[in-house]
Design goal:
Elements (H helix, E strand, L loop, with lengths): L1 E2 L3 H12 L8 E5 L4 H11 L5 E5 L5 H16 L5 E2 L7 E2 L3 H11 L3 E11 L5 E4 L11 H11 L2 H4 L3 E3 H7 L8 H9 L4 E13 L6 H8 L12 H15 L9 H21 L4 H6 L19
Parallel strand pairs: 1-2, 2-3, 6-9
Antiparallel strand pairs: 4-8, 5-9, 6-7, 6-8
Length: about 300
Protein backbone atom coordinates (compact mmCIF):
# COMPACT_ATOMS: atom_id res chain seq x y z
CA UNK A 1 0.00 0.00 0.00
CA UNK A 2 1.59 3.29 -1.13
CA UNK A 3 -0.31 5.49 1.35
CA UNK A 4 -0.78 9.23 0.97
CA UNK A 5 -2.85 11.26 3.44
CA UNK A 6 -6.10 9.27 3.61
CA UNK A 7 -6.67 8.56 7.31
CA UNK A 8 -10.38 9.18 6.65
CA UNK A 9 -10.69 5.99 4.56
CA UNK A 10 -7.74 3.94 5.76
CA UNK A 11 -9.55 2.00 8.51
CA UNK A 12 -12.30 0.66 6.24
CA UNK A 13 -9.71 -0.18 3.57
CA UNK A 14 -7.52 -2.16 5.99
CA UNK A 15 -10.57 -3.98 7.36
CA UNK A 16 -11.57 -5.07 3.86
CA UNK A 17 -8.05 -6.43 3.31
CA UNK A 18 -7.89 -8.21 6.66
CA UNK A 19 -11.27 -9.81 5.95
CA UNK A 20 -9.90 -11.82 3.02
CA UNK A 21 -10.79 -15.51 2.95
CA UNK A 22 -7.25 -16.18 1.67
CA UNK A 23 -5.15 -15.26 4.70
CA UNK A 24 -1.57 -16.14 3.72
CA UNK A 25 -0.42 -12.62 2.88
CA UNK A 26 1.36 -9.62 4.40
CA UNK A 27 0.52 -5.92 4.12
CA UNK A 28 3.41 -3.48 3.67
CA UNK A 29 2.50 0.20 3.97
CA UNK A 30 4.84 2.99 2.85
CA UNK A 31 3.47 6.36 3.96
CA UNK A 32 4.49 9.25 1.70
CA UNK A 33 2.64 11.86 3.79
CA UNK A 34 3.35 10.69 7.36
CA UNK A 35 0.93 11.85 10.03
CA UNK A 36 0.02 10.83 13.54
CA UNK A 37 -3.53 10.07 12.36
CA UNK A 38 -2.39 7.60 9.71
CA UNK A 39 0.08 5.90 12.04
CA UNK A 40 -2.58 5.54 14.75
CA UNK A 41 -4.99 3.83 12.34
CA UNK A 42 -2.34 1.35 11.17
CA UNK A 43 -1.07 0.59 14.68
CA UNK A 44 -4.60 -0.13 15.92
CA UNK A 45 -4.72 -3.07 13.49
CA UNK A 46 -1.05 -4.09 13.65
CA UNK A 47 -1.40 -4.95 17.35
CA UNK A 48 -3.62 -7.90 16.42
CA UNK A 49 -2.21 -8.67 12.97
CA UNK A 50 1.61 -8.92 13.06
CA UNK A 51 2.02 -9.16 9.27
CA UNK A 52 1.33 -5.45 8.85
CA UNK A 53 4.47 -3.36 8.32
CA UNK A 54 4.22 0.43 8.46
CA UNK A 55 7.10 2.66 7.36
CA UNK A 56 7.02 6.45 7.07
CA UNK A 57 9.14 7.90 4.27
CA UNK A 58 11.74 10.36 5.56
CA UNK A 59 11.31 12.55 2.49
CA UNK A 60 8.44 12.62 0.04
CA UNK A 61 9.12 10.22 -2.81
CA UNK A 62 6.14 11.04 -5.01
CA UNK A 63 3.76 8.50 -6.48
CA UNK A 64 6.29 6.70 -8.68
CA UNK A 65 8.93 6.49 -5.98
CA UNK A 66 6.47 5.30 -3.35
CA UNK A 67 4.95 2.63 -5.60
CA UNK A 68 8.46 1.35 -6.27
CA UNK A 69 9.30 1.46 -2.57
CA UNK A 70 6.41 -0.77 -1.46
CA UNK A 71 7.35 -3.35 -4.08
CA UNK A 72 11.03 -3.30 -3.15
CA UNK A 73 10.31 -3.47 0.59
CA UNK A 74 7.86 -6.29 0.03
CA UNK A 75 10.54 -8.24 -1.83
CA UNK A 76 13.07 -7.56 0.94
CA UNK A 77 10.75 -8.55 3.77
CA UNK A 78 9.09 -11.51 2.01
CA UNK A 79 11.50 -12.77 -0.69
CA UNK A 80 9.70 -16.13 -0.83
CA UNK A 81 6.41 -14.55 -1.89
CA UNK A 82 5.45 -15.42 -5.46
CA UNK A 83 2.72 -12.83 -5.93
CA UNK A 84 2.40 -9.10 -5.37
CA UNK A 85 -0.40 -6.52 -5.55
CA UNK A 86 -0.54 -2.77 -5.10
CA UNK A 87 -3.53 -1.69 -3.02
CA UNK A 88 -4.76 1.85 -2.45
CA UNK A 89 -5.48 3.50 0.89
CA UNK A 90 -9.06 4.41 -0.10
CA UNK A 91 -10.63 1.49 -2.04
CA UNK A 92 -12.51 -1.59 -0.79
CA UNK A 93 -11.95 -5.26 -1.62
CA UNK A 94 -14.48 -8.09 -1.51
CA UNK A 95 -13.57 -10.83 0.97
CA UNK A 96 -12.99 -13.28 -1.90
CA UNK A 97 -10.79 -10.92 -3.95
CA UNK A 98 -7.42 -12.42 -3.07
CA UNK A 99 -8.72 -15.98 -3.12
CA UNK A 100 -10.05 -15.48 -6.65
CA UNK A 101 -6.84 -13.91 -7.96
CA UNK A 102 -4.57 -16.53 -6.36
CA UNK A 103 -6.70 -19.32 -7.85
CA UNK A 104 -6.10 -17.97 -11.36
CA UNK A 105 -2.32 -17.58 -10.99
CA UNK A 106 -1.98 -20.98 -9.30
CA UNK A 107 -3.93 -22.71 -12.07
CA UNK A 108 -2.47 -20.84 -15.06
CA UNK A 109 1.34 -20.47 -15.08
CA UNK A 110 1.14 -18.58 -18.38
CA UNK A 111 -0.83 -15.78 -16.70
CA UNK A 112 1.26 -13.02 -15.10
CA UNK A 113 -1.60 -10.80 -13.92
CA UNK A 114 -5.16 -11.46 -12.74
CA UNK A 115 -7.67 -8.74 -11.93
CA UNK A 116 -11.43 -8.63 -11.31
CA UNK A 117 -14.35 -6.60 -12.53
CA UNK A 118 -15.26 -3.74 -10.21
CA UNK A 119 -17.74 -1.07 -9.27
CA UNK A 120 -16.92 2.58 -8.84
CA UNK A 121 -17.86 4.19 -5.52
CA UNK A 122 -18.17 7.85 -4.62
CA UNK A 123 -17.45 9.53 -1.32
CA UNK A 124 -21.04 9.01 -0.14
CA UNK A 125 -20.99 5.30 -0.95
CA UNK A 126 -22.96 5.42 -4.21
CA UNK A 127 -21.93 2.62 -6.57
CA UNK A 128 -21.92 2.80 -10.37
CA UNK A 129 -21.38 0.01 -12.90
CA UNK A 130 -18.01 -0.50 -14.54
CA UNK A 131 -18.50 -3.10 -17.27
CA UNK A 132 -15.33 -2.85 -19.36
CA UNK A 133 -13.64 -6.12 -20.21
CA UNK A 134 -10.07 -6.81 -21.33
CA UNK A 135 -7.75 -9.81 -21.20
CA UNK A 136 -5.08 -11.52 -23.29
CA UNK A 137 -5.73 -15.00 -21.93
CA UNK A 138 -4.95 -17.65 -24.54
CA UNK A 139 -2.77 -15.36 -26.70
CA UNK A 140 0.70 -16.87 -26.89
CA UNK A 141 2.29 -14.41 -29.35
CA UNK A 142 4.06 -11.55 -27.56
CA UNK A 143 3.63 -9.12 -30.43
CA UNK A 144 -0.12 -9.68 -30.46
CA UNK A 145 -0.33 -9.26 -26.68
CA UNK A 146 1.52 -5.94 -26.60
CA UNK A 147 -0.44 -4.66 -29.61
CA UNK A 148 -3.78 -5.54 -28.02
CA UNK A 149 -2.63 -4.13 -24.69
CA UNK A 150 -1.60 -0.84 -26.28
CA UNK A 151 -4.97 -0.55 -28.02
CA UNK A 152 -7.43 -1.80 -25.43
CA UNK A 153 -6.01 -2.44 -21.94
CA UNK A 154 -7.61 -0.93 -18.82
CA UNK A 155 -4.42 0.24 -17.14
CA UNK A 156 -6.05 1.96 -14.16
CA UNK A 157 -7.90 -1.27 -13.34
CA UNK A 158 -5.23 -3.83 -14.17
CA UNK A 159 -2.43 -2.19 -12.17
CA UNK A 160 -4.29 -3.15 -8.97
CA UNK A 161 -4.41 -6.82 -9.95
CA UNK A 162 -2.39 -9.68 -8.49
CA UNK A 163 0.94 -10.01 -10.33
CA UNK A 164 3.75 -12.56 -10.44
CA UNK A 165 6.49 -10.74 -8.54
CA UNK A 166 9.39 -11.98 -10.67
CA UNK A 167 7.65 -10.93 -13.90
CA UNK A 168 6.90 -7.48 -12.47
CA UNK A 169 10.55 -7.10 -11.51
CA UNK A 170 11.67 -8.00 -15.04
CA UNK A 171 9.12 -5.55 -16.46
CA UNK A 172 10.77 -2.70 -14.55
CA UNK A 173 8.19 -2.02 -11.79
CA UNK A 174 7.33 1.72 -12.03
CA UNK A 175 9.50 3.93 -14.26
CA UNK A 176 9.94 7.71 -14.20
CA UNK A 177 7.49 8.41 -17.02
CA UNK A 178 3.99 9.82 -17.36
CA UNK A 179 1.30 7.12 -16.95
CA UNK A 180 3.81 4.65 -15.47
CA UNK A 181 1.05 2.10 -14.82
CA UNK A 182 0.42 1.85 -18.55
CA UNK A 183 4.14 1.54 -19.31
CA UNK A 184 4.80 -1.29 -16.86
CA UNK A 185 1.71 -3.18 -18.02
CA UNK A 186 2.89 -2.93 -21.63
CA UNK A 187 6.24 -4.37 -20.57
CA UNK A 188 4.53 -7.04 -18.47
CA UNK A 189 2.51 -8.18 -21.49
CA UNK A 190 5.74 -9.49 -23.00
CA UNK A 191 6.23 -11.92 -20.12
CA UNK A 192 2.80 -13.49 -19.99
CA UNK A 193 -0.95 -13.25 -20.30
CA UNK A 194 -3.58 -11.22 -18.45
CA UNK A 195 -6.80 -12.78 -17.24
CA UNK A 196 -9.85 -10.94 -15.98
CA UNK A 197 -11.98 -12.63 -13.32
CA UNK A 198 -15.64 -12.07 -14.25
CA UNK A 199 -16.78 -11.41 -10.66
CA UNK A 200 -17.07 -7.95 -9.07
CA UNK A 201 -14.49 -8.17 -6.28
CA UNK A 202 -13.18 -4.60 -6.01
CA UNK A 203 -14.86 -1.29 -5.23
CA UNK A 204 -12.84 1.61 -6.57
CA UNK A 205 -13.24 5.16 -5.32
CA UNK A 206 -14.12 7.49 -8.18
CA UNK A 207 -11.38 10.01 -8.94
CA UNK A 208 -11.41 12.70 -11.62
CA UNK A 209 -8.60 12.32 -14.10
CA UNK A 210 -5.24 14.00 -13.63
CA UNK A 211 -4.02 16.40 -16.24
CA UNK A 212 -0.37 16.24 -17.25
CA UNK A 213 0.65 19.13 -14.99
CA UNK A 214 -0.87 17.51 -11.90
CA UNK A 215 0.66 14.17 -12.81
CA UNK A 216 4.13 15.71 -12.93
CA UNK A 217 3.60 17.32 -9.53
CA UNK A 218 2.39 14.04 -8.00
CA UNK A 219 5.02 11.87 -9.69
CA UNK A 220 8.08 14.12 -9.35
CA UNK A 221 7.84 16.26 -6.17
CA UNK A 222 11.49 17.33 -6.52
CA UNK A 223 10.91 18.50 -10.09
CA UNK A 224 9.85 16.84 -13.33
CA UNK A 225 12.59 15.54 -15.68
CA UNK A 226 12.71 17.00 -19.17
CA UNK A 227 11.62 13.74 -20.81
CA UNK A 228 8.31 13.83 -18.91
CA UNK A 229 7.18 16.61 -21.26
CA UNK A 230 7.34 14.29 -24.26
CA UNK A 231 4.12 12.55 -25.39
CA UNK A 232 3.57 9.56 -23.05
CA UNK A 233 3.66 7.06 -25.93
CA UNK A 234 7.17 8.23 -26.81
CA UNK A 235 8.26 7.98 -23.17
CA UNK A 236 6.98 4.41 -23.06
CA UNK A 237 8.62 3.57 -26.40
CA UNK A 238 12.05 4.84 -25.35
CA UNK A 239 11.79 3.02 -22.00
CA UNK A 240 10.95 -0.26 -23.73
CA UNK A 241 13.81 0.24 -26.19
CA UNK A 242 16.25 0.99 -23.37
CA UNK A 243 15.19 -1.99 -21.30
CA UNK A 244 14.73 -4.67 -23.93
CA UNK A 245 16.75 -3.59 -26.99
CA UNK A 246 19.73 -1.92 -25.29
CA UNK A 247 20.02 -3.48 -21.83
CA UNK A 248 18.54 -6.80 -22.95
CA UNK A 249 16.58 -7.34 -19.72
CA UNK A 250 14.12 -9.60 -21.52
CA UNK A 251 16.78 -11.86 -22.97
CA UNK A 252 15.70 -14.92 -20.98
CA UNK A 253 12.40 -14.74 -22.86
CA UNK A 254 13.32 -12.84 -26.06
CA UNK A 255 16.30 -11.12 -27.66
CA UNK A 256 17.25 -7.49 -28.20
CA UNK A 257 16.03 -7.37 -31.80
CA UNK A 258 12.64 -8.74 -30.79
CA UNK A 259 12.56 -6.21 -27.93
CA UNK A 260 13.01 -3.34 -30.38
CA UNK A 261 10.29 -4.77 -32.61
CA UNK A 262 7.87 -5.01 -29.67
CA UNK A 263 8.63 -1.39 -28.74
CA UNK A 264 7.78 -0.30 -32.29
CA UNK A 265 4.56 -2.33 -32.13
CA UNK A 266 3.62 -0.55 -28.89
CA UNK A 267 4.29 2.90 -30.37
CA UNK A 268 2.26 2.23 -33.51
CA UNK A 269 -0.68 0.66 -31.67
CA UNK A 270 -0.75 3.39 -29.01
CA UNK A 271 -0.82 6.10 -31.69
CA UNK A 272 -3.65 4.33 -33.49
CA UNK A 273 -5.53 4.11 -30.18
CA UNK A 274 -5.36 7.86 -29.71
CA UNK A 275 -6.43 8.54 -33.27
CA UNK A 276 -9.60 6.44 -33.09
CA UNK A 277 -10.62 6.85 -29.44
CA UNK A 278 -13.39 9.48 -29.05
CA UNK A 279 -12.04 10.91 -25.77
CA UNK A 280 -8.33 10.63 -26.43
CA UNK A 281 -6.01 13.46 -25.37
CA UNK A 282 -5.29 14.13 -29.02
CA UNK A 283 -8.95 14.54 -29.98
CA UNK A 284 -9.74 16.67 -26.93
CA UNK A 285 -6.76 18.92 -27.65
CA UNK A 286 -7.82 19.33 -31.28
CA UNK A 287 -11.32 20.23 -30.07
CA UNK A 288 -9.89 22.86 -27.73
CA UNK A 289 -10.56 20.90 -24.54
CA UNK A 290 -7.41 20.30 -22.49
CA UNK A 291 -7.12 17.16 -20.35
CA UNK A 292 -8.46 17.71 -16.85
CA UNK A 293 -10.58 20.73 -17.84
CA UNK A 294 -14.38 20.91 -17.98
CA UNK A 295 -16.21 20.32 -21.22
CA UNK A 296 -18.54 23.07 -22.51
CA UNK A 297 -21.48 20.92 -21.41
CA UNK A 298 -20.25 21.21 -17.82
CA UNK A 299 -19.22 17.52 -17.59
CA UNK A 300 -15.77 16.78 -16.24
CA UNK A 301 -13.38 14.95 -18.54
CA UNK A 302 -12.90 11.46 -17.05
CA UNK A 303 -10.17 8.95 -17.54
CA UNK A 304 -11.41 6.53 -20.25
CA UNK A 305 -9.51 3.69 -18.58
Amino acid sequence: MPAYDRPDTLARTIESLLSQTFTDFALVIADDAPSAATRAVVESYARDWPHITYEANRVRLGMIGNWRRVFERGRQLYPQSQYFAWVSDHDLWHARWLQGMVAVLDACPEVVLAYPKHLQITGDGVKTTKAKVFETFGITDRGTRIRRSARYMLSGDMVYGLIRADALERAGIFRRVITPDRQVLLALSLFGQVRQVPDVLWYREFRTRFDRRRQRQAFFPQGAPIHSYLPPHLQHFFTLVWDFAVRGTGRQAFGRTAGFRYALTQLWASCVRDLVRPKSDWRLTMAGVLPGRVLPSGRAVRDPD
